[in-house]
Amino acid sequence: MSHVDDACARLLDVLIETRGLDRRELLHALAKAAAGSVLLAPLAAVASRTTQAAEPPVTYFTYGGAWKQAIAQAFFDPFTKRTGIPVQYQEPYTFAKLRAMHEAKAQQIDVAGLSGMDVYIAARAGMISPVDWSIVDKSALDPRQLHQQDAIGCSSQSMNVCFSRKKWLGTDHPNSWADFWNVEKFPGRRALRRDAVWTMEAAAKADGIKDEAFYPLDVDRVFRSLERIKPHIKAWWSDNSQAQQLMEQEEVDLIYMTNGRATQSILDHKAPFEMVWSEAIYAGHAEGWIVPVGCPNPKGGMKVLDFIGRPEYQAVFARLLYYAPQNPKAIALLDARLARLMPSHPENEKLAHTINYRWWADSNARLQRRFEQWLQS
Question: How far is 142 from 326, CA to CA, in rounded Å?
Fold first, then answer.
């Protein structure tokens, strides 16, 4: 058994022992296990080698904030303890900066998690190093995590309608995008995301476009749909923290939010809202982690890819920030209530609309400009 396999086996014990406990209790259990060398043994040989010849650091491109904290706790802190490789962070992540470093042949990033659209664009630009399968254990991965060539699936997300449980107490509440657009039947303060991809997809669903006829998007029809809802939007949010504030301070009654941040606000911060899984706009298994071409430490980056695809670490991340694991084995490591709050849960996937990122990779720049112009008109 490899050192990483051994660590996963020991981490599995902690996940099972703490199943159903909250985030704080999980972190306490992880810290206690690390202090007692439960997760670190048998690390002595690795530590000895590290002392003799320090490993070069791996640089990760991160969004910052709560994402950075959870990524560090779930993946990189144990990665460093297991391998002796330190991790450096650059933030905030933007794909434009990653691409500019590539084009200048001055790549500073060793590993990055890309959205599905950015994976397609990066592949076309020759930015992605081939996966080194002598380092990455393919047997630890599910085929769904290999949806994108040379990218390893780690986490995913959906954007969901969330409604106030104070305003809609019973079963008659908004349950679709058509309901979100129906201001006569469901009056209330609304908020949408200031982003073409996610919000245009929602507008298309609200106008009744069926999944089998979704792409290419009928852009003019989508903007007509947006025109109908525009006067009723109190806030167009662009930052996840802003969306959480709108929810937690009850400044809106209906809001379009990432599943992870919505779950955090509802479970941890007691916001009186509920997520709707019907017609969730789902990223699917397209998002992936890559090692950029020309990076300073490609071997270290590959070791990260070997780490992040495993279900045990993905389950920890799901419990810390509530974004969905792409490895389906991780779902079984969550308690049933939390598992049903993951967009990658099979029952939620059945209800979701999955984004076609290949289409958006060709269309986003043009449509984001039009969306911003429309919003400001």
Answer: 8
Contact 258, 124 (CB under 8 A): no
As a whole number, mean pLDDT of residues 146-175 equals 96
d(CA 270, CA 60): 32
196-226, pLDDT tens digit by residue? 999 999 999 999 999 999 999 999 999 999 9
Is the pTM higher than 0.85?
yes
Helix (H, G, I), strand (E, B) or coil at 72: helix
Asked if residues 121 and 257 have their Cβ atoms less than 8 Å apart, the reply is no
SS3 state at 78: helix
128 contacts 292 by C-beta, under 8 angstroms: yes
CB atoms closer than 10 angstroms to residue 92 = 12
DSSP string, 234-248: EEEE-SHHHHHHHHH
* Amino acid in position 181: W
Please determine, for residue 39, whether its predicted confidence score (pLDDT) is greater than 70: no
CA dihedral of 95, 97, 100, 104, whole degrees rounded to 10: -130
Parallel, antiparallel or unpaired: strands 58-61 and 158-164:
unpaired
